[in-house]
## 1
Amino acid sequence: MIDTTPFINARTARVLAFGAHPDDLDFGAAGTVAALTAAGVEVQYCIMTDGDAGGFDDRDPELTAKLRHEEQKQAAAKVGVSTVHFLGERDGFLEANHDVMRKVVRLMRQVKPTIVIAMHPERKWERIQAAHPDHLACGEAVTRAIYPAVENPFSYPELLAEEGLEAYKVPWLWLCGAPQERENAYVDITEFFDKKMDALRSHFTQHPDVGAMENYVLQQCEENAQSAGLAQGKLAEAFHVVAVNASDTIAGF
């Protein structure tokens, strides 16, 4: 298990978190984000689709997208995030293609994050609903962008020529929603669990049974804490942490 406390206590310069849909980051990482922002770390969100195919009401997809944008902004604010980027991809059609990757690389080079948080690109077979194709595409696009594209000056050279965005090496990638065998890091979010739940409740279009959602999230955080070896009553979020550019990383494309 990797101790993530130093990242939080060291006042990490900047975190950029990618989710496939509005609410994905609140399920997977909002407690950790709340802990980071409380410690003075700047966190920005990037939501890759508009969430226009989500919800349980008979409403126009364009209206759904507008509502979900507002829900995500409100949820982000509750955990200390003031900047939310929307890539505008269509819900259910997200792909790790070069148009999407170029957008991701552009944003990474603009923000220059120390940590990138994203969804895991591997399918979680024990609960396939957690492995929505858009989730996998989000993880794949972000992972492919981090290596080698964002740090390779020959990838998307127009970003440098037209926008002055130079290559940048991302130090860390934290993937949420990982298959259990991939999880290698846990963050104690006991102190911030209420903020996580408050953020999730902001997504009112997505929860026909709020109580069931709350019970599910609590159970998952309890199980994460148990896997982390934390004391009874503690709550945690789980990640697959990858050192992209550490002190011993060998450079190369």
Note: Residues 210-228 form the longest helix (19 residues).
## 2
Amino acid sequence: MTLTEIKREARAEAFARRKAAFAARSPDDGDRLTGVLAEHVGKTLAGYMPMRTEIDCMPSMAAHRGPVGVPVILGAGRPLKFRQWHPHANMVAGEFGAFIPETGDWVEPEVLIVPLLSFDRRGFRLGYGGGFYDRTLEGLRAKGPVTAIGFAFAAQEVDEVPIEATDQPLDLIVTESEVFVPSR
């Protein structure tokens, strides 16, 4: 089986696990993330607009004391850019149905909340397969320090995410039940 096939199968399994966790979600699932972000007051944060069964990081984004951006897809094979967001921003549909602010300044994040399908204790994540966050993290890390926080339901953890050389690791993983620094 090729790595592409292995990842495709892993994604199908991960979607099912995440869907079940989403169905059992609680309104306080993001409390740990809000606590973690309190350590980053004043830093530029990038979150995401949750889609389908992604865990909701918006309450933590709204509580952040500092600039907040959300990802904008500029095209296949390109890194993400981040448009400034606030809770009352006028949102429009962007690529793949993710909502983005209709207008706003571009911001460069120092801290990113990264969505995912599955994660492992090494800090690797399985995303949707477009490589957007991997390219983005690689570019941001080349410029200076950046903290990538994986945010997920605990049920999304797997023993080992299939990885390739371009996959960027996470610096911290936050679930509704714990916060941990990956072991590499």
Note: The mean pLDDT is 93.
## 3
Amino acid sequence: MDEKKEKLLDSMKKGLIVSCQVQRDDPIYTDDIAVKMAESAQWAGAVGIRANSPEQIRAIKEKVDLPMIGLYKIWHKDTDVFITPTLDAAREVWEAGADIIALDCTAQITHEGRPAWNLLKIVRKEIPEAIILADISTYEEAARAIDNGADIVAPTLYGYTKETAHIEGPDYRMLAKMCRNFKDSAYVIMEGHIYTPEDAMKCIYLGAHAVVVGSAITRPHLTAKRFVDMLSGYQSNWRDSERAKHLITE
């Protein structure tokens, strides 16, 4: 990794990255809500932003001067792969101003009929100046992503694949193993199911380079639904709403 990339990643060490994402069918949606989320994160002292879609990435970059993890969520009925699923999507994220491109690097099959992780090598070749973050769901997927050129691995999709769909919270043991075994070959960032400052601090203690938090900070409708889920005696599962597909395309 070159010095410029290392400097950017080192600027996020032991800090909070806030995921500032909103979909048009979310109850909190307004045209500028993602920007307001990012401005609030910067005011609070966050070290980075994670944002979805070229449109929202550009809008945030105009107002907020923090490293940007960019992705482009595109849903299809025939697959659970939705995070930056194509080279064109990766290019749009990069051209919008992202410093880091997040890709689904699981073994799930994409709308185009290939394993999601296959895109990593293509993006690495076509956009060599980009830092690539591999969103994975298992230790094995993280290892494969690093072997194929990922600069960062994060268990973002733990709980969102068929293999891990039963989970309720973060897998700290998997995180610790990743931090121990991959420390010399990639940055390990914790993302997924972190809801309190104490949870985030556990991840830093276990060796995570930084921690990404989204729903607990920027998605109040899902925070409320977690409370309702418990207070109603678990009659419905709030994660069904969290996992819902948006703007399905064919």
Note: The mean pLDDT is 95.
